[in-house]
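Researcher: Next sequence.
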Amino acid sequence: MYTSAALIDLHERTHRSLVGMLDHCAGFSDEELSRELEGFGYASIPLQLGHVIGAEQYWIGVLNGQMLVDEDPADVASIDALRAFRERVIAVTGDYLRAASDAELSTARTFTTWGDRQADLVPAHVVLRTQTHIYQHNGQVAAMSRLLGRPIPAGLDFPMR
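Model: Next structure:
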């Protein structure tokens, strides 16, 4: 059984890594941030970071019975805008996790996803997916940072403490 406490801990640790990545990316110039790099599904650093934050917003919205698919370009306009977007999303996820019982988090039920599709999902798996997804794209941002001549510092993986 998944517990709310464990998922809250995972969520907070994962977002500490994301904050570290945002802090690193704040050192890039506007030109570097807007540069589109070949070989990436989301071609710029802000688009990569906005995607992972937006994915968490979408999936927690699904769990809350909402379809949050509209993207606001202002959310990825700068590192400060991304920080504010992350703060809004992390608060909603935190509220969801604090309100959900362990049984609710661990029990599959039917949710509506994009395209009005019905899917049987375990809420804890949805939350876990949003958090592992952050690390996938942090890896993309790390590769982009290397290409831009500013490799990420050590320690932006999952915090052990």
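Model: The radius of gyration is 16 Å. Residues 4-147 form a domain with the Four Helix Bundle (Hemerythrin (Met), subunit A) fold (CATH 1.20.120.450).
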